[in-house]
Amino acid sequence: MTPCEEHRLHLTRRALFGRASGIGLAALASLLPEPARAKGQPGLPGFPNFAPKARRVIYLFQSGGPSQMELFDYKPRLKEFSGTNLPESVRMGQRLTQMSATQSAFPVVPSKYSFAQHGQSGAWVSELLPHLAKVVDKLTFIKSMHTEAINHDPAVTFLQTGSQISGRPSMGSWVAYGLGAETADLPAFVVMISPGQGGSGQPLYDRLWGSGFLPTRYQGVKFRSVGDPVLYLTDPAGFPRENRRAYLDALGELNQLKYAEFGDPEISTRIAQYEMAFRMQASVPELVDLSKEPAGTFALYGEDARKPGTFAYNCLLARRLAERGVRFIQLYHRDWDHHGNLPKGLPKVCKETDQAAAALITDLDQRGMLDETLVVWGGEFGRTVYCQGRLTPSDYGRDHHPRCFTVWLAGGGIRRGFSLGETDDYCYNVTADPVHVHDLQATILHCLGIDHTRLTYRFQGRYFRLTDVHGNVVKQVLGA
Questions:
Q1: Are 399 and 384 in contact (CB under 8 A)?
Q2: 101-124 pLDDT per residue, tens
Q3: Is residue 62 part of a domain?
Q4: CATH number, domain at 195?
Q5: Is the bond into 48 cis (omega within 30 degrees of 0)?
Q6: Does the reported pTM lie above 0.85?
Q7: Can you give the residue range of the structural domain that contains 89?
Q8: Virtual CA dihedral for 315, 313, 156, 196, nearest 10 degrees?
């Protein structure tokens, strides 16, 4: 049923009940979503479409564009090409950003970091990521990712919403809409941001975790690192909880009257979100209280896990959210945008994220949760093999590169110890098993038991979906 058809149906019911003495308010319950105090929130009828491998997603988004040839895509021949101009036969007229378009030369610069093979899978990993190197047999690497956008904002928007144009629902919102929530005490979709010590990361806008044209109850809830994790979580002084309960009950009755009059779904969303906020006043303080975590937890994640706002703290909180039934957990870590001074900036951001990301995989696995939790790591695009700006013996930078980059996945529905895709010797073009952004999105939904072609919403005369009119599940990375 389309939203317009549902609205007309509700209007018809209201007309009937409005003429029937004494039963108008009693009938309102049939028009509203499940009672606010019910356990969780059901998804769409028929979803999941088939037996899911994963119940939830933890997406570790590395904002700025990590350099694939410095981290996972080992290219030993780059030393042979060092300092030479990138051949036009390799670049093939690719459009450039304004930051490097005026360069007279495009000198190839090899990574200054050493690589080694690890685990039984023999995956190549840079010396910058010693902790992830220990868990490679739990990961699948996709080295042939490619995207359509060459600048940060449209590229991040594309990965998060399936469109370079802002205003579409985010992936977490689509998942919450299709599958609902497992818990009534926390949102189905939670977002956390860690800025990085460099403090120069690209901006991240609330629309990246917004619900777009879906009802706003499906938008992500951002947890803050300073003060209350969620605004207005604490009641004002002198306002006891029983008064808050009575206040919300009275407010809910007023909102229900307005819903009966206008049929605006955003009114029902407001009723539900007020109730969610009330329950979060009890659930969130317990969630963020790490005092009962054993010392071994902080040895695993690192001491930064004690500091709110760090990537390590957010990874630990992500595990705690997953334990409590949150459906989609989105972590953003900024400061991966290394146009210059890469040898100084990249090691810092790797140190901030490496141990915690590996710890999250290990922790979930030890608790028996990894098989039902899909973990995704990656940025919006890769970096160029040529140097942006002046190349010196000790310094170089890399520009944006949409033609190839690397992501890794682990957990629910994903093969362990596997690598898919190849790039050329310049790490510039995909040469085998290309994976488009919509393919990755389709695969994530597939692991959750969702056929990406069936998760749609009618808006402005057409049906929309996360993968637009594209996307194929990457079956090679799926487990048995």
A1: yes
A2: 999 999 999 999 999 999 999 999
A3: yes
A4: 3.40.720
A5: yes
A6: yes
A7: 55-234+298-477
A8: -140
